[in-house]
Amino acid sequence: MPHVVIEGPISLEDIWIAYHPLDITEGDARFKTEGCYLSKDKSELLLAALVVERGYVRKFYLKLHQHQESLTVKLDPMTDPEKTDGVRRLVAIIAERILAAVPEVRVARTNIKPFLHIDT
């Protein structure tokens, strides 16, 4: 499953407070997030996501999961979309935005390095 683990001082509550809907186009692909939902215990955050590529629309949730010293950006297994390049790229885009907003964090692990447009 595509994922990015980010280490450093960051909380899902901070991401939830700073959330702004995403709507970007890269080449022929379009990426959107339309909602942000923080769990009561603040350990998980869901982003309602949409990817349009090659004329196909995929709707799913991205899950951000808080660990003690890190957080993971991944697909929510309940929605389990096809793992296309566009879906992988949206996981990377969310990770890139977190990395840009919090300079003290870094990518600890990922299985989608070619989709991240940053040095890891």
Based on the model shown, name its key terms:
43% strand, 20% helix, 120 residues, globular, alpha+beta
- Cα Rg: 13 Å
Strand neighbour order, sheet with most strands: 2-3-4-5-6-1-7
Give the ordered list of helices and strands. Answer: EHEEEEEHE
Query: Kindly, what is the distance between the CA atoms of the first and last residues, rounded to a whole number of angstroms?
Result: 19 Å
Percent of residues in helical segments?
A: 10-25%
Q: What is the general shape? A: globular
How much of the polypeptide forms β-strand, as a percent range?
A: 35-45%
Structural class: alpha+beta
Please describe the biggest sheet, giving its number of strands, its sense, and whether it closes into a barrel. Answer: 7 strands, antiparallel
- Please, how many domains? 1
Mean pLDDT: 95
How many E strands? 7
Oligomer: single chain
**How many helices does DSSP assign?**
2
Which residues sit in consecutive blocks of at least 5 with pLDDT less than 50? none
